[in-house]
Amino acid sequence: MPAGAVNQALLDADALINGYLASRYTLPLSSVPQNLPQIACAIARYQLLGDAATERARSDYEDAVAWLKDVSHGRVKLQSDVAQVSNSAQEVVMLSGGNAVFKRDGRP
User: Fold this and answer.
1) Does residue 102 register a pLDDT over 80?
2) Which of 62, 71, 80, 86 would bridge 31 by S-S if both were Cys, CB 3.0 to 4.6 A apart?
3) Does the pLDDT value for residue 83 go beyond 50?
């Protein structure tokens, strides 16, 4: 394996991950969810193994990419300690004040 191959594979995995996350999250993330390093490692491992990839490495890679696709389509949300700002204008919540419907005693 050439010197720097692992580092390059991790950089490539990072770029792939960011490509999927950028559609939903502001990058860089302020807090990295616990599962993202596992996703990056699965991608990098598969890339490093190349033609020698095992069925398990291929399956882990495909699962990682499928999960990233789910994140990019909004079917899965990243879990982190800090809420992320979405790039989607469709997620705006509008509130307006109005007259009270019920009094403090619960009667209309």
Assistant:
1) no
2) 80
3) no
